[in-house]
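Section 5: illustrative case.
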């Protein structure tokens, strides 16, 4: 079998590392991917967002309710943690530690019932007032 010899070019262009043959280089004004990405293809992130937005039916007792996928996953994790699954407990406590102080999880006073607000007003100091301190244990009044 004979080895084919490369064609000689009249230019002094040397082919080598990062220097492809001139015949295989992109032509000026022509794209290397002329058709581009096919229409209708979506990224993995977009697909995940769509999956998380889906509402799935869940039966609790005798009632069937619809929850978002992420909520179902978190409810299942909490149930597994309550059944003493050590991995679920560890993951649940990690999530709780990370997201417990988020503004979304804080109870807002305006969301409470009016009756609860009245009770809290009796016991909470007014805004800006210093909180009352209890005397040290063992101190006489």
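Designed sequence:
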């Amino acid at each position: 079998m004979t080895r084919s010899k490369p064609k000689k070019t009249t230019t002094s262009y040397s082919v080598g590392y990062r220097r492809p043959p001139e015949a295989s280089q992109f032509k000026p004004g022509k794209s290397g991917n002329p058709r581009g990405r096919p229409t209708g293809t979506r990224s993995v992130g977009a697909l995940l967002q769509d999956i998380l937005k889906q509402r799935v039916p869940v039966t609790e007792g005798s009632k069937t309710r619809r929850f978002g996928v992420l909520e179902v996953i978190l409810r299942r994790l909490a149930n597994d943690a309550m059944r003493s699954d050590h991995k679920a407990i560890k993951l649940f406590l990690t999530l709780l530690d990370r997201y417990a102080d988020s503004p979304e999880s804080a109870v807002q006073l305006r969301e409470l019932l009016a009756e609860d607000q009245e009770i809290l007003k009796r016991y909470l100091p007014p805004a800006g007032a210093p909180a009352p301190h209890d005397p040290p244990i063992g101190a006489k009044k």
